[in-house]
Specification:
It is a single chain. Among the domains are: about 110 residues, no CATH class; about 140 residues, no CATH class. The chain has a two-stranded antiparallel ribbon. The chain is elongated, with a radius of gyration of 34 Å. The chain has about 750 residues and is mainly alpha-helical. The longest helix is centred in the N-terminal third of the chain and has 28 residues. Helices cover about 65% and strands about 0% of the residues. GO terms for molecular function: dolichyl-phosphate-mannose-protein mannosyltransferase activity. It is found in: Endoplasmic reticulum; Membrane. Keywords: Endoplasmic reticulum, Membrane, Repeat, TPR repeat, Transferase, Transmembrane, Transmembrane helix. Belongs to the TMTC family.
Length: about 750
Amino acid sequence: QIFNQHNAEAPNFEQAFHRMAQMEPNLDHDLSWFLLPSYWAKMVVALISFLCFANSYDGDFVFDDSEAIINNKDLRAETPLGDLWYHDFWGSKLSSNTSHKSYRPLTVLTFRINYLFAGGFYPVGFHVINIILHCTISVLMVDVFSILLGGLQFSNKGRRLNLAPKSSLLAALLFAVHPVHTECVAGIVGRADLLCALFFLLSFLGYCKAFRENKEGHTFSVFWVLVSVILGAIAMLCKEQGITILGLNAVFDALVINKINLLELIRKLLYKDKSLENAGLLRKGLLFRITLLMCGGAGILYMRWRIMGTGPPAFTEVDNPASFADSLFVRAINYNYYYSLNAWLLLCPWWLCFDWSMGCIPLIKSVSDWRIIALAALWFCLIGLICQALCSEDSHKRRILTLGLGFLIIPFLPASNLFFRVGFVIAERVIYLPSIGYCILFTYGFSLLSKQAKKKKILAVAVLGILLINVMRCALRSSQWRSEEQLFRSALSVCPLNAKVHYNVGKNLADKGNQSAAIRYYREAVRLNPKYVHAMNNLGNILKERNELREAEELLSLAVQIQPDFAAAWMNLGIVQNSLRRFEEAEQSYWTAIKHRKKYPDCYYNLGRLYADLNRHIDALNAWRNATVLKPEHSLAWNNMIILLDNTGNLAQAEAVGREALELIPNDHSLMFSLANVLGKSQKYKESEALFLKAIKANPNAASYHGNLAVLYHRWGNLDLAKKHYEVSLKLDPMAPGTKENYNLLRRKLEQLQKKGG
């Protein structure tokens, strides 16, 4: 539906609108920059944005990708699609107390599509989509900046005019090559920010389409306003920041479409001026459109609240220490310091880090802290810009500065800790949208300098230099995001006080088998944060494997003392106590772990091992059965059941369990081996042989597989094949227990047979 918008006191509103636009100073007039046709400008932006992040296409899954993608059951085909609408970004139920309440079902849906098309967890497809999304967004920014910097005007044929082609190209290039965007593009979980930004911009452009003019006068379309609200809702379903576009659309409407002077409006409101209608606030259509935006926003938030529930997300002090400070003064000072650091990352994105928590930024607790200067600098700049945005006599300047500040501040509000606690100190990914405002302000500042400068080419070369440095920084930072080792090590120089950085470097080293180096980093993580229970748990695990049981027990005991519901630490403590032959304490630790995590198959498995050591065979079998019920693919639990039943002479039951296990895990060679042993003892030689051969095909270098197959042939009377597999087994493991004795027995028997035959 189209409504004509007429001002009763200004019947020639359309002509006046065009005259005003022509009288406004053109931002491009004094700008020393390249002038390209719109098509070529977009091609250049797309190409440069691609070059910045192209080397991330074959990177690994890193950092949060493991939880959000690899361990997220919502990506798998067996999970009903409907579950995505009731789970958070990490695959947990929104109703769970442990949920972070990050509701992004459309982002998870794209991950699921990636997974299905790739046929598994192959990161290349995930990375390529992220790069394409950033290139698309950067191209859209050319249109967005042309509106924000040049105004919204249409030709007689209804085509939108680009009145600032040079400045919109510069701003789009600044956005495309900003290094702070690397986390969003090179980190796969950053797709939430990319999708949110895509629909955020589409919502804005859709809102602008509502004001396409026609022959009847200046008009607006309710249809496009509603489309804009729907696109804003989609943006929010990709990431929470998306809802802020509705507020920005309202600001744009007031400043650009209705050309409201905010300072004049405030004065008239304060003095209850009866000429408010002339100020533009009550101009026909504005309040109606803002009402539509407000109702749409309220409806979206209500639906989100209904789905998410009333409980706030559960964060810990190490995630965001300032939010747990008792003093309101300390909280306020540190929040403002965080804002200044975010602003610095936009201005000078050289020191970038995947995680800024856990001591990376120590709390400011006193006004004598020199870092207060950063707060003063931030607010000095912001107040100066706000004063210019409100008080300048130049309407063009007022509009650009207000829009720049609006796009800088409003999308950042959900991450500001003002409305609710967030789970981070600084997150580079949340600056993706606010960087739009930074690019507007930078471009406007450059245009002012160009206007004053005599040697404009030097300024242009300087800006080109900044763009080139940013491209190089993006390429370098993208390469660091290609693997966890590079990513974590790159953070050591930026945040040496961050315990999580040391923890992640240690974990990466431990996964690669370098336990000695991992221990050093885990110890440093615990030193930096004496309450870091995850570092204590992992360090305790390594010490347990190195048989340093006493220190392992001390660390794990401290971990469960600090966090009594830490189920993994309770289980690992039980393993250590079992190794120390303190069986009653170990059993108690296992049951405590299960109390805190009801579905804990690994703990039931270890509990079964404890019962087996105590010859409590029935209890052991029950524990392992529980493990397989909770996790049907738990190969170790199945194997232990088969072996225990085999060792206790229950061959029929062992055979039944083995067959059941192989139905569930048909390609597990260890299960084939265990069942083959049982079948051999039951004199089912043919079937046993088939399983042994299948197991050997899957794992040809297992000496025990060849050795036990040789025993089978030995019993079966197939002595030549027995000799062959004994020899293979001894070649693979000359110290294999029993194999050498059996081989010698076979050789003597063969010699006796040869003598008899001779």
